[in-house]
Structure formats: structure tokens, C-alpha cells
Design brief:
Layout lengths: L3 H5 L4 H34 L4 H52 L5 E3 L5 E3 L17 H33 L14 H20 L7 H13 L4 H11 L1 H11 L8 H4 L1 H18 L5 H12 L14 H6 L9 H18 L8 H4 L20 H10 L2 H9 L2 E2 L10 E2 L1 H8 L5 E2 L5 E2 L1 H16 L16 H14 L3 H5 L5 H10 L1 H9 L37 H11 L3 H22 L13 H28 L5 H8 L12 E3 L2 E4 L6 E4 L8 H6 L6 H4 L2 H6 L2 H24 L6 H21 L13
């Protein structure tokens, strides 16, 4: 793989010279070919040879003459490959040279490895500095442009090297006769070769050797995002071909050892196969449009193997767990899947497991990625939505016509209601051999995460932006209404609590706007709210009605945050998000370090800290009440659960802030939290660098377990109060304040937290859930 400095400093003179030399060779071979065909071959054809001489010599002359033609084709192909490779390398090199030249004018430095940074770091700028001040968006644009140029060079290098090796061939006595009119044509030909090679391996089914599965995986990985390869493979295998292959792999009765001895290879194959088909679905060719329609049509048909007969939807959904599938195809597929399930369950009168779980024989093993065997097709489909935010948002905001063939009735179903409330999710066999509903609700949570945040649920957090839209917010409104209405929805859906915490973290700004209002029912934000920052013109990304309007009233926000915080994971995620958000708002609305201010200038800062502390109080009280309900008082489990309630603090340590979005990495697992300011610094930076106390590590285990539960709860709530102070402490101690101002700010803001914690009980918090 070529690197930044290799492309930037590439010497292309020799390559250009080679292209010119091969052009000369082409001209000479054209003349030689003409002579061979008109002279050598022509005379041989006219000669009146008899006997063995005619049978041997004439054939030899014809073959020799043909080699001149093949030599010309080969030389022309080599010339074309070298010419186009030079063009691509030169374009990539020129682009990098241009970026390097323009970078200083944008306040950006590009080092010898292609890493971008400030030309002059903000901390080292003079007071009168008036030069360019790049923001994260500028750095990201530069990184993307550099990567695109390097990728262009690497792609040209890969295609050209493979094409040239193929043109040389393995036969020392014959020219290959392969014709490439361009580098693009060579790339396409290579894709077709790889697709056919993959098809030949596919035909071996589960009789393939481990080495052949490795080879198939290698072909998929090498062409993972190549549209032409993906389409060629999908069409050659056919719509039902993938289903039949994967069903055969999952048949435990046919004696194959692949699933016994090489589960890791099948796990990789499932990922690669899924990503290949995902890429193929983006094609709009007539053949692929028919392929997509046929996949959905085959969904309700059994796929018969030796010992199993899963439905097409069951098999195909397991090939959707990863990859960026076409949005329209996913929506059409989901509609077809729901319609089929409703028919098979007699419009919901039978539970879903009656539709998808085999009543006799061994179940198919359709999912090798862990978590479940893959018998419920809704799980794989939800994972597919989890990787495709646009499709997921449209799906949960839409409706499904259960009788599309009948235009006179109006028999529709709301997908959000169906999956979050009405559908009885089947129990699945997990990796431990236990039957549980967790895999299904875990996948549902992933789909809702993508629908509400606008990002794949497992997206790499580096460089992510806050991309929420009105449509995303509409799904989140449904989430808050459903899961904030009654604790039973979260508690009876194991595996969804972590996703609810992440969704709450992604809308922590809007939840804070709701918490600030004085009434539990008003839908108007408090005027001049410190949480009301939208764009530069004060407009909301969610539409005009939300410029001053709220997504939820205070009562809904309290209920949602309180119920989600009954979960240990939900409490940890929301607590960390609330603290980071509070700190960032303080950074935005409080007086800037070093400036002069009076008490009135602290109004927004005090409001910010008050709401942050109030929110933390709501969450802490809800979690403590649930612990009391779940565990016997003074039991070891009770004490350990209380001890873990402050572990969330460590999530903020090492968090990466960029472009107005902070990524909580630690135990929260990549949670996006919107920040108040586009450029993050000051108190936020100070807070992120702070060492966090961890209550569970504050005591020796034996000492912790000796304490009474009530005493331990008091200590944990006190620690929660102390943690609520952290944003204020960070702000008061930000660089730039005088000692006198620092002490004054510390005292003023600490008082705000002390009072605010009591307001957590102003609302009647959600009752803890009593597990049946």
C-alpha cells in the first residue's frame, strides 16, 4: 500500500518513459503483424504442400503469424495500462501537492506522514493573532481529500500490477492475447474474474475445504466495496442461490465439519457475504432490480436442505446483519417480511415463534456471529436497519399496508408500535445455551439508535457529527413516549436498556430544555434558555415549531430519564452524558475566563448547573429505588449495585470532543453527546482531563460489604451530588480566572448544586419496576 509521502514525492518520469517505449513497440509490432499476415501466413496458405509437411508446417506458420497479432494486442494493452496508471498517479500526486500548498493559508499543517494539525496551535497564538483559525470541519475535509488522493493512487497501483502480471502470463512460448483498452477496463475484467472465481467456490457448498473458505473470504474482502464485482456475483449466484447456500451451511444434519471446527471462518464469511450483497443492492440495473424483487418474493418460501427447511426471510435476514444495504430495498424487504409474518400468525392471533421456529427436527444455524442462532428473521433485519439510518428512520416513521393487493381496504400497521409494543418477540438460544428474548430486543435497540441519531449504531465515533434531523427527532419522540410511559416496556425487553441510554444521551440537549420549564405540561421552552442554542439564527434543526417549542414536556422528560436510569447501564450512560453536556453549556454561556462580570452575568451558568444537578438527582434517586426493589436490603448484591452507581464518572475521562459532538468511549461504548459549542475548549477540556473518582474502588471490598445498605446509599447519593459539582468546579478552575474570581465562582455554583439536588423530588419519579 502506497503512503502519503510516497505518492507526494513519486518520480513518474520512468513510468511515462516506459509508456512511450511501449507505444513505439506497438508501432513496430503493427508493421510486423501486417508482414506476418500478408507475407508469411499468406504465402503458406497459397503453397501447395502435401503430406506431413502440409499438416505440420502450415499449422506452425499459422500459429507463428497469430503470435505476432497476440504480441500486438499484449503490447497495446501494456501501453494502455502504463499510460492510464501514469495519468492516475499524476492526478493523485498533483492533488496532494495542491493540498500541501493550500494548507498554510487555511491555518493547517500537513506533516510528512500526511497527518494534519494546527499550523499555529491556539495555545501558542499571540494576543493580536488575526490569521486563519481552522475548526474540526476544516481538518476533516483536509483528511478526506488526502485519503481520496492516496486511495486513487493505490487503486491504480493494484489494478495495474495485477493486469501487468496477467499480461505476462505463465506460458513462456505464447503471448496471452489479453486485450485491455484502459485501466478501467482492466479493473472491470478483474472484478468479473474474481466474481466467477467466487461463484466456483460457492458451488462447493459446505463440502468446501477450510482453505477454500479462506479463498472465498479473501475474494470477498478484496472486492468488498466494488459495485461491479458485487453485482456480478449476486447475479451469477442468483436470488435463491445465496439463501440455499447459507441454509445448507446452517444444516446441522448433513455431516459437514465446517460449523463444528471452523466457526470463525463462517463468521467471517457471513460478514463478507453480507457486505457484498449490500453493495450489490445499490445497483439500479434492470437485472438487479429484478434480483431484489425476487429476494422478497422468495422470502415466504421454504429453502429445503437435507434436514432443515427455513424460510427465505429467515436465511436472508442473517445476511443483512452488516453492510450498507440500499434504503428502498431494506424498506421493501421489511414491509414484505412483516406482511408475511402477519399472514403466518393469522394477523397476530398466534405468537411470532409459531411462524419461524421449527416444530420438529433440529433448528437451522443461520447466524454465526454470536448472540442467537438466527431463526427469528426480525433480528437480522433490525441489525440491517441499525447500519442504515435513513432506511431505519423511514421505516419507523412509516406504515405498512398489510394487503397491498387490495386498494379498497385500509389495513395498515404502525411498525414502531408493532415492534416496541405489540409483537411478542420469540425467545432465542443464546451463546450460553439459554433461551432468552435479549437478542431480539438488543437488535431492536440498535435499529432505534440509528433511526434517532442518524448514524449506524456501531459507527466509529472518530469524526462523527451531530446530524439529527426532524425525521430522527420524530422517532425519538415516539421512543420517549413509549418507554417513558411505563417501566414495563424497558424492563420486559431485556437488552434494550443500553440503547435507550445512548438515545437519551444523543438528545440530552433537548431533554435539558424540557427539564428547565416550570410546568410539567407546557410545550414551550423557557424564554432565553441557555439550552436553546440552535443555529446562528436561533433556528432549530427540527423545524420552526421547535425554535422555542419542545420535543417533550418536563413530565415526559422526567419519566423517560427516570425509567431509563432504573437500569444500571442506562443510569451510567445518561449520567455521563448529562455531566459532559452541562460542562459544555457552561463553557458557552458563562463569562469567559479572565473577563469581568457581576452576579447577573452568572444567571445562565447557574441555570445550567441547576438543571444538570437536578437531572442527576432524578437519575440517582430512580436508580437507588430500583436497587431497593431488585435486591434484599443489606445483601451483598444490594451493596455491590449501590457501589457501582458512581462508576459512570470514569466514562468521561479521555472522551474525544470534536465539531460539537463528544464521544463517550469508556464503559458507555461509543455514545454521542451533542455539545453546546461547535468549538470545544476551556472548561470542557479541563473537565475531560480531570481524574475521576470511582466509588467502587474507594473502599476495600470487605469494608464495602460491612456497611449497612442505608449508609452506603447515603454515601452514594452524596457522591452523586459531588459529581454534579464537577462541571462547576471545572468551569471555576478553567485557565484565565484570578484566584479571587475562582473562589467566588466556586462558592456561587456550589450553592446552586446543593439547592438543585432537592428539586429532583419535586416531581413524582417513576415507580421502580417490580420484576415478576
Amino acid at each position: 500500500m502506497l503512503k502519503f509521502d510516497q505518492v507526494l514525492h513519486a518520480r513518474l518520469g520512468s513510468l511515462q518513459e516506459a509508456s512511450s517505449v511501449w507505444s513505439e513497440a506497438v508501432s513496430k509490432l503493427e508493421k510486423s503483424k501486417d508482414k506476418a499476415e500478408t507475407g508469411l501466413k499468406g504465402k503458406a496458405e497459397k503453397a501447395d504442400w502435401k503430406g506431413e509437411n502440409a499438416g505440420v508446417t502450415q499449422a506452425f506458420v499459422r500459429k507463428t503469424a497469430k503470435e505476432f497479432g497476440d504480441a500486438l494486442i499484449g503490447a497495446t494493452s501494456i501501453r494502455n495500462i502504463l499510460r492510464d496508471a501514469h495519468t492516475e498517479f499524476q492526478a493523485a500526486k498533483s492533488e496532494l501537492e495542491k493540498l500541501v500548498a493550500e494548507a498554510p493559508g487555511k491555518g493547517i499543517r500537513i506533516d510528512q506522514d500526511g497527518v494534519v494539525s494546527y499550523l499555529i496551535h491556539p495555545d501558542r497564538r499571540a494576543k493580536n493573532y488575526d490569521g486563519p483559525k481552522p475548526e474540526e470541519a476544516d481538518f476533516e475535509a483536509m483528511r478526506s481529500a488526502i485519503k481520496a488522493a492516496i486511495d486513487r493512487a493505490n487503486n491504480a497501483d493494484d489494478v495495474a500490477s495485477r493486469a501487468l502480471r496477467g499480461l505476462v502470463g505463465t506460458d513462456k512460448n505464447n503471448f496471452s492475447g489479453t486485450r485491455y483498452d484502459s485501466l478501467a477496463a482492466a479493473s472491470k475484467a478483474q472484478d468479473a474474474e474474481d466474481a466467477h472465481a467466487a461463484y466456483e467456490l460457492y458451488k462447493k457448498g459446505d463440502e468446501a475445504t477450510p482453505a477454500e473458505i479462506d479463498r472465498l473470504n479473501a475474494l470477498f474482502k478484496a472486492n468488498q466495496k466494488d459495485p461491479y464485482f458485487a453485482e456480478k456475483f449476486a447475479l451469477e449466484v442468483g436470488p435463491k442461490g445465496s439463501m440455499e447456500y447459507w441454509a445448507d451451511m446452517g444444516d446441522p444434519s448433513d455431516g459437514s465439519r465446517l460449523g463444528v471446527d471452523h466457526r470463525d471462518k463462517l463468521k467471517e464469511l457471513q460478514t463478507n457475504w453480507s457486505m457484498t450483497l449490500a453493495t450489490a443492492t445499490h445497483s439500479t440495473s434492470p437485472e438487479m432490480e429484478q434480483w431484489k424483487a425476487d429476494v422478497i418474493k422468495a422470502g415466504g418460501e421454504p429453502i429445503q436442505t437435507r434436514g432443515t427447511s427455513p424460510y427465505g426471510f429467515q436465511v436472508m435476514s442473517n445476511l443483512m446483519r452488516v453492510g450498507d444495504y440500499d434504503d428502498k430495498f431494506l424498506k421493501d424487504y421489511g414491509n414484505g417480511l412483516v406482511i408475511t409474518e402477519r399472514k403466518m400468525t393469522h394477523d397476530g392471533r398466534l405468537p411470532a415463534d409459531r411462524a419461524w421456529h421449527a416444530m420438529g427436527g433440529m433448528p437451522s444455524h443461520l447466524n454465526w456471529q454470536g448472540g442467537d442462532l438466527g431463526n427469528d428473521p426480525m433480528i437480522g433485519f433490525m441489525e440491517g436497519l441499525g447500519h442504515n439510518p435513513k432506511a431505519s428512520t423511514d421505516f419507523f416513521n412509516g406504515s405498512i399496508d398489510l394487503t397491498p393487493e387490495n386498494s379498497k381496504d385500509d389495513k395498515k400497521i404502525d411498525p414502531f408500535d408493532y415492534f416496541t409494543k405489540d409483537r411478542e418477540w420469540p425467545e432465542e438460544l443464546n451463546d450460553k445455551g439459554d433461551r432468552t428474548k435479549e437478542p431480539g430486543y438488543n437488535a431492536l435497540g440498535h435499529a432505534l439508535e440509528s433511526a434517532t441519531t442518524g448514524h449506524p449504531y456501531d459507527a466509529d465515533t472518530e469524526g462523527l457529527k451531530d446530524v439529527r434531523t426532524k425525521e430522527n427527532a420524530e422517532v425519538m419522540q415516539k421512543v420517549v413516549e413509549r418507554y417513558g410511559d411505563d417501566p414495563k416496556y424497558m424492563h420486559k425487553q431485556p437488552g434494550i436498556d443500553d440503547s435507550l441510554g445512548k438515545m437519551g444521551a444523543a438528545y440530552i440537549d433537548e431533554l435539558n430544555r424540557s427539564l428547565e420549564t416550570d410546568s410539567d405540561t407546557t410545550m414551550e421552552e423557557k424564554k432565553n434558555s441557555p439550552f436553546g442554542y440552535n443555529d446562528d439564527k436561533g433556528k432549530s434543526r427540527f423545524g420552526e415549531e421547535f425554535d422555542t417549542g419542545l420535543l417533550w414536556n418536563r413530565g415526559d422528560a422526567v419519566n423517560f430519564m427516570g425509567i431509563v436510569s432504573q437500569s444500571e447501564t442506562g443510569h451510567a450512560t445518561l449520567s455521563a452524558a448529562e455531566t459532559l453536556y452541562t460542562t459544555s453549556v457552561l463553557d458557552e454561556v458563562g463569562p469567559k475566563p479572565g473577563s469581568t462580570f457581576d452576579e447577573r452575568d452568572l444567571t445562565d451558568a447557574r441555570t445550567t448547573l441547576r438543571i444538570g444537578s437536578e437531572a442527576q438527582g432524578i437519575m440517582d434517586e430512580s436508580r437507588m429505588a430500583q436497587i431497593d426493589k431488585d435486591y434484599e436490603k443489606d445483601s451483598e448484591e444490594h451493596k455491590k449495585a449501590v457501589g457501582r452507581t458512581t462508576e459512570w464518572v470514569k466514562f468521561g475521562v479521555g472522551a474525544a470532543a470534536a465539531g460539537g459532538v463528544v464521544a463517550l468511549t469508556g464503559g458507555a461504548g461509543g455514545v454521542l453527546v451533542p455539545l453546546a459549542a461547535e468549538t470545544v475548549g476551556g472548561a470542557v477540556t479541563t473537565f475531560i482531563g480531570m481524574e475521576a473518582d470511582d466509588m467502587a474502588e474507594k473502599y476495600e471490598k470487605d469494608e464495602l460489604l460491612k456497611k449497612k445498605s442505608d449508609d452506603l446509599k447515603d454515601e452514594a447519593l452524596a457522591m452523586g451530588k459531588e459529581n454534579s459539582l464537577r462541571p462547576g468546579i471545572a468551569y471555576a478552575n478553567a485557565p484565565g480566572w484570578s484566584e479571587r474570581d475562582r473562589n467566588y465562582l466556586d462558592e456561587m455554583l456550589v450553592d446552586e448544586v446543593r439547592d438543585a439536588r432537592l428539586h429532583a423530588r419535586d416531581n413524582s419519579l417513576p415507580d421502580p419496576y417490580e420484576k415478576k
